Amino acid sequence: MSQVNRLSQGGRIDRSHQLHFTFNGKPYVGYAGDTLASALLANGVDIVNRSFKYSRPRGIVAAGAEEPNAVVQLGASEAAQVPNVRATQQALYEGLTARSTNGWPNVQRDLMGMVGKLGGTFMPPGFYYKTFMAPASLWMTYEKYIRKGAGLGRSPAEPDPDIYDHLNQHCDVLVIGAGPAGLAAARTAARSGARVILCDEQETMGGSLLGSRERIDEAPAAKWVDRVLDELGSRDNVTLLPRTTANGYHDHNFVTLHERRTEHLADSAPTFGSRRQVRSRLHRVRARQVVLATGAHERPLVYANNDVPGNLLAGAVSTYIRRYGVVPGRKLVLSATNDHAYRAALDWHEAGREVVAIVDARANPKGDLVAKAQSLGIRIITQSAVIEAKGAERVSGARVAKIDAKLFSVIGKVEELACDTLASSGGYSPVIHLASHTGTRPTWRDDILGFVPGEVKGLTPAGGAHGIYALNDVIRDGAEAGVRATQAAGIDADTDTPALPKVAARQDGEACALYQVPHEKQTMRAPKQFVDLQNDVTAAGIELATREGFESIEHVKRYTAMGFGTDQGKLGNINGMAIAARCLKRSIPEVGTTVFRPNYTPVTFGAIVGRHCRDLFDPERYTALHQWHVEHGAEFEDVGQWKRPWYFPRTVNGKQESMHEAVARECLAVREGVGILDASTLGKIDIQGPDAREFLGRVYTNKWAKLAPGRVRYGLMCKDDGMLMDDGTTSCLGENHFLMTTTTGGAAGVLEWLELWHQTEWPELQVYFNSVTDHWATMTVTGPDARKLLAEVTDIDLDKEQFKFMDWREGTVAGVPARVFRISFTGELAFEINVQANYAMHVWKTLFEHGKKYDLTPYGTETMHVLRAEKGLIIVDQDTDGSVTPEDLGMQWAIGYDKPFSWIGKRALSRPDTRRTDRKQFVGLKPKDPKVVLEEGAQIVFDPKQSIPMVMVGHVTSSYYSPSLGHGFALAVVKGGHERMGDTVYLPMADGMVHEAEIVSPVFVDPKGERQHV
Amino acid sequence: MFHIYCPYCEEHREEEEFHPKGQAHIQRPEDPEACSDEAWGDYLFFRDNPRGVHHELWVHAVGCRKFFNITRHTVSYEILETYKMGEQPTITAQNLPGKDKQSGVQAASGGWQTVGARPESEALNDASNQGARV
């Protein structure tokens, strides 16, 4: 197919460089410099998509980010699929493959279009909700087909081969948009020496000047663009980022820029040798000042059938002709409310095609461009508008009539003009999206008929972004914004008026306000007048919404879906508000605007994720012994960021043990021989200072006044509401020196907790905290043979009278300086050996050399859990949940009620709620059926025969099979459980089974605690 | 994402380095045992939620580990000042310049809590020691 709409000359394309591409399976040819949209128009492709709800054929409307229809799925291979790409923003490259996102089975013959045609009048806002509501269970079925008909692109099903980067950037002045205002601002800021970042979303910087008919310094405007870019490019203090969209404007001038580095080259980033280029970068910019030079979007007029392919924005028509050498039709009718739009007709005429008429809503248009059109003999129909487009798959005519915009009515006879293209312009809406991202409400200005950014600290709008449109004014405003931003950034700017380029001032007539064009029929009965093309929202839909009582614009938005999704109301919002205002008999500022949200245009997940994926998704922490665990076949468990050995399965008779088998073996080894655990992940906090002991007494529930050097104590830590937050042992290393251990997951939180109390409540206490978790490796040797094994490798006297339970000693282990703590989390004789982490592997291996004869067995966290549960020892946040007091746990022995200082949590323990006798209390559960292992989390009831919903009185917190006892057992919390020893409780399960269990003491093994004292 | 001036490090750092810790100037009663259950409940559970000026406790968690206070506007999210523990804010809902008040700033009922952290000495309230303005 030839490029029927391509001009033989003109435009910023390279006609000597052909590019082949495929759209919906058909091959086409375009030129270097094209966007996918300009190439499609050049090839005469009218229908690029089907609409979201009614499945109406849709064509290209705009030339930039505001394009609502030409949203395509990009990618030749599965792995390279990218949804939601605007064809107007996608540079053409050799081999580009794109498909419409909507249309089933295809855009030309669309089955859903039948639904739209037949059901169109019956598909008001809320149609899907109202129609497919009942029965609710079938929604999933309906949805599948609705989605298929109304798809919005899909994500790739294969891994992305590309890599993406994040960059943290700082600058004095960030200029967003490289049109005339942005270029002028960046240049003045750069000349002052400020660090400047200039970003622009298009392939080439220059914005409107790239397709402008205006002249700067008596040369085409694009020459001035080149000069400014040359100057900026030569400066070290300037970073130019083309193909970079500022997508989100966040608090304190934090702006996210999405730089597409290779998306204009190929589906996936090119490789150099074995190295793949970075596909895109997300710049996280902290700017002292931001200049918002994002320009304005043209507003289409809302008339009947304004969605038929061939309806374009006036400015887009100019852009396609002047920048891409493409005239998207043969016969043009222009419907306008302002002088600026006349450029479309002039460009069309100069391209040698027929301008049927300019239909101007103003009674007496005056201005330089109007005069030019008149002098060319173009017919101008005043005080009129196109009220309806004719045609189905392409515009075939325009119905034009005299209108009264104020009375909202057609006041003359309708004339029908034959044409294939209808351009419209209802004025301009400043692109204020970014300024609104932080929640600042924009301000309506009657003189420019648009919203301008509200006041945002650190942000200076320039040019079209705040309603300044004449080129000479835009450049001056941009330069001044550059000065203001530079000064606000604390840099001495040259305050002399910067030398401005010469631009011939143009006389423009005043624009008139027109949004929805009246039709002979009432809005509800007229052919569809589209407001939001992407979401298929019509003027009638908004009218209906206001009639049904949706008066707030935010509610109208949600009811109709106006401005939703990837569109974010770029074309339709102001028109929609104007229609809502008309229906509600209010002014536009009274109706107000909805909130724009990041992102301005879609950002790929790859760019958002950057390098934080796969191995780098989350940091992993390894103990000093990790490599040994890997080599010995450990299965690992994640505990916080730590990788801890879960269990060590052995291969027995060529078959690897199951977890159950491995854990049973490991448990018995500890109970009957000796086992070893890598406990290095336990949090360790070194506490020093003359008031360290006093401090401990305030943050722990129990007493610390008399703990002598060489002794260890278990402590409970509560929040001030009396609920347990952490537990662990603390050892007295010296009179003013303690070592606190915390749970593995609680280490960072406990340190912050200690600092909080010290810094905010008791700064007078002389005490200092330091995390030493990573400095020390901890190896727990436990079991009846533990002493015999350790004695072989240490110089510490292990005599049970010299080195008692809850003592610690300093000495050497395997020739290495060590601290050995006699504490037990298994209930057996146990020694926790602490050595400097870098000696740990040596010590561990030495223990195994000597441990061979005792069958020293490494065990993991699962066995640790079973062994401690058999002893009724809690794990904070498993057996507790932030609503459990030490008394609920039956740990009155660890509460120092008579301590002089009212320690953290004490006062709360005498509140009425904590004194209730029916609080959930910590108990053991013994299932009546010894084979049963109760489910953790299972709910407990006293009476299984009651009707549902049953009164739940507690739940299982830990549950295991005990190899030593030969039956299942559990820990639980039960209302008033401490007084219910021996009672039977019931656990109804989801499958109808009801388990019975007896409430018992939580200590199942060695209730007198004799084994750990041997 | 906030850009926060740490009054101890004396420089602006990214929010990722900090943890918010709730309302500032909540003082633990000197003698908890003398408190009524209701007073203790107020101390434990009840916090202001003003539209406007709010004094907050933050910690430079992965920086200097120091706790400090931020006066923040809950509508604009502007940080009006940061100041060290034991110091008092210079900007409050009562003395905020009029222009900002008109832009939707309201004092919480009862204003900001006047109990404050106990200054180590009155000198901490001297102008020379006041928190850095940002």
UniProtKB/TrEMBL annotation, chain A:
Pfam families in alphabetical order: Fer2_4, GCV_T, GCV_T_C, Pyr_redox_2, SO_alpha_A3
Ranges where the FAD/NAD(P)-binding domain occurs: 172-486
Molecular-function annotations in GO: sarcosine oxidase activity; transaminase activity
Domain Aminomethyltransferase C-terminal: 920-1006
Domain SoxA A3, residue spans: 527-608
Keywords: Aminotransferase, Oxidoreductase, Transferase, Transit peptide
Family annotation (PANTHER family): AMINOMETHYLTRANSFERASE (PTHR43757), AMINOMETHYLTRANSFERASE, MITOCHONDRIAL (PTHR43757:SF2)
Family: Belongs to the GcvT family.
Name listed for the protein in its UniProt record: Sarcosine oxidase subunit alpha
Species per Swiss-Prot/TrEMBL record: Modicisalibacter xianhensis
TrEMBL record, chain B:
GO MF annotation terms: sarcosine oxidase activity
One Pfam family here: SoxD
Gene3D superfamilies, alphabetized: Folate-binding superfamily (3.30.2270.10)
GO biological process: tetrahydrofolate metabolic process
Region Disordered: start-end pairs: 91-134
Name by which UniProt lists this protein: Sarcosine oxidase subunit delta
